[in-house]
Every structure is written in structure tokens, then in C-alpha cells.
Structure prediction request, 54 residues.
Amino acid sequence: MNLIPCSENCKHQKDGYCCLEEYGAITDVISSPCAYFDERKETAKNTNTAKNKQ
Prediction:
């Protein structure tokens, strides 16, 4: 197991580390140095939780 530090807004990032289990499709994202970057999408559940905390 490798601990790869990550601060990207990626669905594989958790608690500051990359948690990619298996190699995925290589993306062609210019905005990130990571070949496996997959932008995290806000879900309705996350949006509602954030609104309730305000």
C-alpha cells in the first residue's frame, strides 16, 4: 500500500490521500498533474448537509 498525498478535488481523494483502489481510465485533464484525476461532483446529499450546517 502506498500513501500518496493528494489535495485535488478528486473523487479518489480522502483525508489528504489518494485512495484509488485499482488503476482506472487515464484522463486527459490539463488542470491536474494526476493521470487518474476524476473531479468530485457535489451530490444532493452533500449539498443538503452543507446547507443544514449553516
Q: What stands out?
A: Strands lie at 13-14, 17-18. The two ends are 38 Å apart (CA to CA). The chain is about 20% helix and 5% strand. The chain has a mean pLDDT of 77.
